[in-house]
Amino acid sequence: MILAGFIVTRLIEAAVTYNAGATTALYVDSVIAPLLPNMQEKGQFGDTDIRALDETLGQGALGERLMSFRLWDRDGRIIYSSDKELTGRRFPVNSKLRDAFDGTVVAQFERAEDPESQKEKSSGRPLLEIYNPIRQPWSGEVVAVSEFYEIAEGLERTLLRAQLWSLFAVVGLTLVFFVVLSAIVLRGSRMIDTQRLSLSARVAELSRLLSQNEALRLKARQASERVSALNESHLRRVGADLHDGPAQLIAFASLRLESPLLTEPTVEDARRDKEIQAIKTSLDDAMAEIRTISHGLVLPQVEAASLSDILKTAARAHQQRTNAPVALSLPAEDFELSSSEKTCIYRFAQETLNNGYRHGGGIDQRVAASIHNSELVIEVSDAGPGFATPPEPSHGLGLAGLQDRVESLGGQFSVDSSANGTIVRMSLSKKNSGLG
């Protein structure tokens, strides 16, 4: 902006100076033009011409405006000068004089630096130096150049005023740009700060989610390891139950088939019938145990069942197996569940009822389901003696397996046990529904 202001000021100064010089030159040219024919004929001015020039340039408006006046020829000789000591002297042709003989009006403000201008330079007043080409009226040829110094105090004020206005304009424009750019930068800075805070919050949230994902991944791996161990334990239990129960009874029946009571024809019918009945009883017992084991392994059809039907089925199966009553408290509305969630709920009710019967004596067993704020909560309780630490899973999935199954679906699992009884609780939210 400083450079622009300097350039604009110089352009204004040059334009004003040229216009002022051209106006003055035109006026002076009109005054001395009548004297040119005499100079053309004689090569110099006569006494009459010089007297006329002295009177014209020394009096009136020109006398007040002009400090000095000179006429030059092409050779650098001063034909006429208001300072008589310079008349007839020769000086080097400078660039300004050369440009004037080429037909250009040259005007300079406060630059009296030529050798012949020592008087003007020492005056200390603001001067406008003008070189004006003088042409023949009929041919337009430049025959002489007039050089004069105009007292330019008014021009100085005009230039100063123009410079000040240009300076004010540049400063005002600079301030406007500064204010606008400051507003843009301030707005951008605030936007960057807002985005930085938002980005920091996102990074913190992502870090928290990564930590949660890492914890969930570790938990899922541990759950997978526990499920594998529980499955192996469950298979060993099933194998032990088959070996110790039905297999022994069938082996006993197989040995009795080779008894002499069945092979000897001399054995009494009553004794033979008694032996056959014992074999039949052993086989019936084996079949009953096989059905009992199978009943615990086979999952009923719960995919199309509602929440209430699933809990009723689990409670009914438990009552048939143990003859222990189970109180049910079911919600009036249904809860949308996926197939894996329905399976989880059935296994949860089955296993917790079995644990309550096995470890709590089946005293006052209850199953209660409720829905609060789109969250399903199922509680299985009993009034047994409770336990300080969870019992080892000798049958079924066990509490650890149930916890892994529930949490794998995004649910919550908890156990509260005291001397007054035990409550096992699971919960599922609709936002997690369908993950299984």
TrEMBL record:
Domain Histidine kinase: 252-432
Top-level enzyme category: transferase
Reaction catalysis annotation: ATP + protein L-histidine = ADP + protein N-phospho-L-histidine
Alphabetical list of InterPro entries matching this protein: HATPase_C_sf, HATPase_dom, His_kinase_dom, Sensor_HK_TwoCompSys, Sig_transdc_His_kin_sub3_dim/P
CDD domains (alphabetical): HATPase_UhpB-NarQ-NarX-like
Assigned keywords, A-Z: ATP-binding, Coiled coil, Kinase, Membrane, Nucleotide-binding, Phosphoprotein, Transferase, Transmembrane, Transmembrane helix, Two-component regulatory system
SUPFAM superfamilies: ATPase domain of HSP90 chaperone/DNA topoisomerase II/histidine kinase (SSF55874)
Entry EC no(s): 2.7.13.3
Molecular-function annotations in GO: kinase activity
Domain of life per record: Bacteria
Pfam families hit by this protein: HATPase_c (PF02518), HisKA_3 (PF07730)
Keyword Amino-acid biosynthesis: no
Residue ranges of coiled coil: 206-233
TM ranges: 164-186
Protein name (Swiss-Prot/TrEMBL): histidine kinase
